[in-house]
């Protein structure tokens, strides 16, 4: 104002103003979805002002206007040979996509996470609106508002945390926690993050990053990430669990960095929040529940169509062995023109042994976190005392337990 310029800073990227929610919660961010919902209420209505054209840039004085950087300038190398992701950018496409999703009122009314097929790639099981929300091509308030319109026109509909509007509330939840948590994106100095002594193993990390773990379900997801920049939520669960507390015991920050670079919906608050969650470093503590890299995907896609699409070298592997090609006899490998260790790797770890070891190490880390917390405060820590109040992002405790029970390694 001193210069005679009025500054207007609207909160428009999230449903609610993070500062407002934190104030209402006594100066601290709500650390559970339920406590967030209890405080939040209904989000403000979206602003329905339409602009027919952007104002001209005007005189920029001594500053030069630069063109949009090329993909190469952004450091992504030669992408000319890459498969083009099937998602187009921009607001027009965002609105078209949202309308197409919401047109199916029954689908919206029955939407229930974590139900939905993570292997669906020709027709993804969720809206794929995350990249548009991330880049501001779609307003989360407008999306929320349009979902409410659908709810008003049907008799019954699912409710948060599992419903479609509940997903947008998850998005806001992570924004609120990050806003009020110093060092939210790291283990060091992050009060809500369990201190777990993750291992260093560059070879295993690179195999995971490059989709060469030897587990086709995991590798197909990592290749989809590299090619499309988007994968279904439960696919993200599978690979982040395997990297961290499930099998490889590698630091969640390393996996977070890979996602941050490659996701087209890469979002600082949501990505970090979910990595904290999946690594059982915060929010979710049932570390003994581990996704099997073999049986989890098979449940949704027994023929392995998803694997065949993203890993062409396995396209002719027989249905019986598509999730575990290393167990097939040589005659099957030859018939499929895919020899294990030559054309496709064998598993970098044995899942049964590795997951058992991970559970043991997580148990030790949790015990040591409890001890540290007891000795520093003289009482049990909030983290260890806090009862797990909801299951997965959107799942009830019992539904995620059921989901994982069918895919547990033991
Ligand atoms: P829909 O199911 O259609 O949901 C609609 C919107 O709700 C999404 O677009 C998203 O904005 C929001 N939403 C849905 N699930 C979540 C969730 N669990 N947490 C927060 N918001 C959610 N999502 C990102 O947008 N950016 C990320 O960088 C990101 N990183 C992730 C990392 C890991 C390890 C995991 C497990 C999940 C991550 N997610 C991230 C959350 C989730 O997987 C995606 O938001 C979702 O898959 C996007 O697909 P969609 O738009 O079809 O979702």
Biggest beta sheet attributes: none
Indicate the structural class. mainly alpha
Overall morphology: globular
Which ligands does the model contain, each kind named once? flavin-adenine dinucleotide
* End-to-end C-alpha gap: 65 Å
Helix and strand run: HHHHHHHHHHHHHHHHHH
Domain Cryptochrome/DNA photolyase FAD-binding: 166-363
Site (Electron transfer via tryptophanyl radical): 198, 252, 275
Binding site for FAD: 126-130, 167-174, 265-267
Cofactor: FAD
Describe this structure in words.
The protein is mainly α and 410 residues long. It has helices at 18-24, 33-40, 91-103, 105-110, 130-134, 140-152, 164-179, 202-209, 216-228, 233-246, 252-262, 268-278, 295-300, 305-310, 330-336, 351-377, 382-385, 397-405. Helix 1 packs across helix 7, helix 7 (164-179) packs across helix 12 (268-278) and helix 11 packs antiparallel against helix 12. The longest helix is centred in the last third of the chain and has 27 residues, at 351-377. Residues 378-391, 394-401 and 403-410 have low confidence and may be disordered. Flavin-adenine dinucleotide (FAD) binds at residues 126-130, 133-134, 167-168, 170-171, 174, 232-233, 236-237, 240, 259, 263, 265-267, 270-271, 274-275, 278, 393.
């Amino acid at each position: 104002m001193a210069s005679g310029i009025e500054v207007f800073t609207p909160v428009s990227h999230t449903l609610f103003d993070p500062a407002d929610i934190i104030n209402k919660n006594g100066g601290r961010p709500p650390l559970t979805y339920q406590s967030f919902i209890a405080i939040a209420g209904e989000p403000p209505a979206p602003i329905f002002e339409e602009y027919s054209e952007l104002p001209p840039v005007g005189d920029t004085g001594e500053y030069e206007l630069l063109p949009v950087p090329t993909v190469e300038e952004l450091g992504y190398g030669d992408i000319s040979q890459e498969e083009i992701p099937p998602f187009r950018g921009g607001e027009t496409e965002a609105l078209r996509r949202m309308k197409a999703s919401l047109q199916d009122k029954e689908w919206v009314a029955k939407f229930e996470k974590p139900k939905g097929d993570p292997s669906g790639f020709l027709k993804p099981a969720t809206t794929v609106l995350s990249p548009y929300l991330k880049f501001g091509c779609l307003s989360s308030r407008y999306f929320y508002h349009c979902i409410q319109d659908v709810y008003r026109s049907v008799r019954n509909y699912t409710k948060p945390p599992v419903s479609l509007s509940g997903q947008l509330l998850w998005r806001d939840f992570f924004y609120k926690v990050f806003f009020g948590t110093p060092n939210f994106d790291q283990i060091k100095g992050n009060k809500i993050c369990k201190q777990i002594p993750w291992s260093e193993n560059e070879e295993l990390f690179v195999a995971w990053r490059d989709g060469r773990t030897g587990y086709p379900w995991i590798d197909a997801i990592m290749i989809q990430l590299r090619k499309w920049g988007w994968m279904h939520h439960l696919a993200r669960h599978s690979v982040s669990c395997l990297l961290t507390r499930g099998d490889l015991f590698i630091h969640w920050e390393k996996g977070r960095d890979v996602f941050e670079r490659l996701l087209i919906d890469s979002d600082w608050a949501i990505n970090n929040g979910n990595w904290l969650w999946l690594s059982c470093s915060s929010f979710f503590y049932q570390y003994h529940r581990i996704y099997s890299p073999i049986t989890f995907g098979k449940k949704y896609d027994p023929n392995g169509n998803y694997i065949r699409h993203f890993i062409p070298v396995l396209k002719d592997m027989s249905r019986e062995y598509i999730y575990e090609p290393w167990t097939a006899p040589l005659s099957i490998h030859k018939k499929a023109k895919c020899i294990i260790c030559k054309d496709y790797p064998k598993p970098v770890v044995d899942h049964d042994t590795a997951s058992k070891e991970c559970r043991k190490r997580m148990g030790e880390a949790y015990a040591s976190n409890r001890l540290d917390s007891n000795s520093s405060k003289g009482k049990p820590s909030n983290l260890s005392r806090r009862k797990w109040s909801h299951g997965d992002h959107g799942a009830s405790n019992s539904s995620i337990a059921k989901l994982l029970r069918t895919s547990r390694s033991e």
